[in-house]
Specification:
Blueprint: E1 3-10, E2 16-26, H1 31-38, E3 44-46, E4 53-55, E5 60-64, E6 69-74, H2 82-97, E7 113-118, H3 120-131, H4 136-148, H5 151-155, E8 158-166, E9 172-178, E10 191-193, H6 195-202, H7 206-212, E11 217-218, E12 221-222, H8 225-240
Parallel strand pairs: 2-5, 6-7
Antiparallel strand pairs: 1-2, 3-4, 5-6, 8-9, 9-10, 11-12
Helix pairs in contact: 4-6
Length: 241
């Protein structure tokens, strides 16, 4: 079942705001929560005192039986503990649908999209990718190639690409997340990648993708953010030396 609790949080302006925050979402019973998530409205609020937008980054379990999606989102601050979060995700699945569940409910993990995510952007991304019948490992490799071969993204300090939609012509439309905001006249910065590019990456096969970029996936966490995390670790190690 979906679990939503009222909590009090403090805005940066000092005002105390009462918010409704979800601990879990059962889409079959509460489809409006799925829509709020996809629309970017879940856990996003406006402080009435200063009009600042408050976004709460917290743990969230997401279960959609009809679409066979079981995902656990963790705060971005937990990215360095990805292995422990993966264990939590797998244990939650096991208790809900695996060996710990009543026999009538038991399914195999490979029958579901079972993923660990960090932040609501990544959770939305996984849902949209799966809804579009795309393979998320292929999409993550495609993101890596696009970012490595697009100087404009590097110049803007883009650290992630999020799938916005699949266009009628089959192209994949992404929204970049950048450390530097573009000028207002530059627009939202959405970019399209052809379906042919996706198909070329898919043709490599999972084994070849992971052989070339082994850090792209580990357990239930499949994300180019793993590579970003590893690069940060290496940078810190180099600075310490």
């Amino acid at each position: 079942m979906s679990i939503v609790n009222a909590q009090i949080v403090s805005c940066k302006c000092g005002a105390r705001v009462e918010l409704d925050l979800a601990d879990s979402i059962h889409v079959d019973r509460h489809p409006h929560l799925r829509q709020r998530l996809l629309d970017g409205e879940l856990h996003s609020f406006t402080c009435l005192a200063c009009l600042r937008t408050i976004v709460i980054d917290k743990q969230l379990f997401y279960y959609d039986h009809a679409r066979r999606q079981f995902l656990c989102a963790f705060p971005m601050s937990e990215l360095g503990n990805a292995d422990a979060c993966d264990a939590i995700t797998r244990n939650a699945f096991d208790q809900a649908l695996g060996s710990g569940a009543p026999p009538v409910l038991q399914v195999k993990p490979e029958q579901y999209l079972l993923r660990t995510c960090f932040g609501l952007d990544e959770l939305r991304d996984k849902i949209r990718i799966d809804d579009a019948k795309l393979n998320d490992l292929v999409v993550e490799e495609l993101k890596c190639q696009v970012m490595a071969n697009t100087p404009a993204l590097q110049e803007r300090g883009v650290i992630a690409l999020w799938l916005r939609r699949v266009a009628p012509d089959g192209s994949l439309e992404f929204l970049p997340e950048a450390t530097q905001r573009p000028a207002p006249e530059a627009g939202p910065g959405a970019m399209a990648v052809s379906r042919a590019f996706y198909d070329d990456v898919a043709a490599l096969g999972h084994e070849a993708i992971l052989a070339a970029r082994p850090g792209l996936a580990w357990g239930s966490h499949v994300s180019m953010r793993r590579l970003w995390m590893e690069s940060r670790k290496q940078a810190r190690h180099g600075a310490a030396r």
